[in-house]
Amino acid sequence: MKAKARPVDQWRLINFEKVLMTLVNSAPGQTEGSALTLLSDEIAKASQEEGFPIKPNTAAGVLQQLKRIRNKTTSFGGRWAATVECGIHRLIDAYGLSESYREPGFLDCPPEEKTLLAYVFASVDPKQWHGIYTTFKDIPEIKEASLIYGSSTVDAIIKIEAPTRKFNEVLIGTISDHPHIKTTQTLFAVSGSQWQKSQLERDAQLEDIPFYHSDAIQDDLTTPAVHADSLYPSPQIKRLFQKEEQNKQLDIEDMRHGDLVIKPEASINLFPEIVTESAQQSIRAVVILDKIGRGEKVRLHRYLQAQAMKKSHHPDFEIRRVFFFNDLEAQLKKAEICARLGYELAIGVQVKYLRAWCNVHQNDGPWDFGLMDETMQWIMENKTNYESIRHLRVSLNRTTVQRTARYFEIIWSNAEAFNSSQITPFHQAYLESDFVKWTPS
Question: How much is the pTM?
Fold first, then answer.
């Protein structure tokens, strides 16, 4: 007689299916089969690299076992559940999975009860919005909140998504009882009718929106406070923006997206040092080697020297760089490129390479960009000045920076690490180059 399935086995399967569907929705073109294969690869790596004793522990074997579990011809054992969780952990950052999946034993948790989705129309005091959203942003069930205009009775829309048992606590205890919220009207979404684009589709199509600094919202909510000190990641970056703004005689409308195109040679050459000095946690970048102009060598050397000093004084500071090669073999025959790669590895930069571009939509092509922490990005434009130095487009727009950061993590997860046979000539070329003189002792 067949044994009755334990509740925990059912919970594990339900939670696993939820993760699988999240992966399917995480990228355009992702199917259930490809998502299952992706999970199988990571679970097999987790078993082999972290010593989880499961059998089989090859990607193909894991895939077949997962299919049997989904067909209910077998079930998750304790070792399998732990290994599957470890494999899922490896995909959280790259695919935007829920942070709740990091919790040990999350597969064993009873599935959440019915989730309610609602939109709250609220009458608020706009001058108090900073205090309101500061309260809301720490409530995981409040997914979005925005001030609006065009209505005489509604000042804000708040989106709530929460299990039934939690919903009233959020609606009444957090929103309706807030001292600066006057009245609310709650509209519930019809169950099963919701549709939304996947995260990558939204990222690919999301347009830059005006950047409003919440600390300085005016009564009429029409003029963004782009000159507020806290908009800028550092005093040096603030000075750079203000200098370029004065040079070009920009008005407030030119800056409403938090973007700045830098063209003068002096500012472009100083930019790498400003970024390196201002960064607190990390610098991430994608480099298209065959786009580097003749006039950019000075800036490149200053950039690498500044980063070498940063790493020597702050070993935990993270620098990650992905190099895109149109012709890997041809590029790696160039002594200058090998010397640069050897120098970056010598000073502690994490380096990978990419042979094929990671498109998020059809028209996207290779582009040269970088990120400082989670606060600023820059893009190397194709236009150049008279010194053959490409213009820089710098953005402080948080929506833009967050979108680009997610894109970088996708590129990083698809990039390859150089192997030992490639690294050896890099090191030799570095030792024979001027880069050696710039390496901190």
Answer: 0.48
